[in-house]
Write a structure and sequence with these properties.
Endonuclease, Chain A; 132 residues; globular
């Protein structure tokens, strides 16, 4: 069972719009995280947490996955503050660059898979990634 984390309800509409717009790298990774394809774990896309919207979130794993695009270079301080707050809520954050996701999705999935394997007590269920 996962803990309930506060979020600002004003962010719901923005999160919905971000999901509809869809950045290429997010859509690509979502194809492997959606419908519990990674080890049977549930992931949410563009999820409000506290005062932030994270790219992907698994409540069962307390895991946030962020894809950092070119615009993140301008937001280093903001990203550091966000990560500090999310970490204080007991969440782990994995960062990947837009380029990593678009050019080497297998390596990104391997890192996520390895993190899940190391941080969960039971073996991962077979999923789409393992069948590739």
């Amino acid at each position: 069972m996962h803990k309930i984390i506060y979020y600002n309800p004003k962010l719901k509409e923005l999160a919905r719009k971000l999901r509809q717009q869809g950045v290429r790298s997010e859509i690509k990774l979502w194809q492997f995280l959606n419908n519990k394809q990674l080890g049977g774990y549930d992931f949410h896309r563009q999820k409000p947490i506290d005062e932030y919207i994270v790219d992907f979130y698994s409540p069962d794993l307390s895991l946030v996955i962020e894809i950092d695009g070119g615009s993140h270079g301008d937001k280093i301080v903001y990203d550091q503050l966000r990560d500090k707050k999310l970490t204080s809520l007991g969440l782990t954050i994995l960062h990947f660059s837009d380029s990593q996701v678009n050019n080497d999705i297998d390596a990104v999935l391997r890192v996520i898979h390895d993190w899940v394997t190391l941080h969960t007590p039971t073996p991962l269920k077979r999923g789409r990634y393992q069948d590739r």
